[in-house]
Amino acid sequence: MKSWFRTYDEDEGLWRYFETDGEGWAVRQVEIREADSVPVTAASLKEVLRLRDHGGLGAMNRYERRYGVLAEGGLDGWQEQPQADGISAEEFDRLWDRARRALGPSD
User: Fold this and answer.
1) Among 11, 22, 65, 70, which residue has the least CB neighbours within 10 Å?
2) Annotated domain spans of the chain
3) d(CA 20, CA 72)
4) SS3 track for the chain
């Protein structure tokens, strides 16, 4: 079962938003800088896997420069993170769309 939530990284001043699969792994991730509300990450596991399998190292590097790096590993325990809260799928999708428009279309 998918879930959607946010956490706050005080050290980096980033709001982190996640969509996770039933095992707690990130499927999509958005990061927004608190200081100016600018999206800095909008990474997708589906895209990362496609590039890993078919795009080569150069394509993966370009993807990560444009969309950031997707969290690896399970995200269990997110509830203990600063300002953590569950969000709706609709809210996540709005943030995802906004971040993708700001960071540019996928190749």
Assistant:
1) 11
2) 3-101
3) 11
4) CCEEEEEEECCCCEEEEEEECCCCEEEEEEEEECCCCCEEEEEEHHHHHHHHHHCHHHHHHHHHHHHCCCCCCECCCHHHCCCCEECCHHHHHHHHHHHHHHHCCCC
pTM of the predicted protein model: 0.91
Q: Tell me whether residue 50 is exposed, middle or buried, using C-beta atoms within 10 angstroms of its C-beta: 0 to 12, 13 to 18, 19 or more.
A: middle
Q: Distance (Å, rounded) from C-alpha 33 to C-alpha 16?
A: 9
Give CA angle at 31 (26, 37), nearest 5°. Answer: 160
Nearest 10 degrees: Cα torsion 69, 22, 76, 81: 70
CA dihedral 98, 99, 101, 104 (to 10 degrees): 180
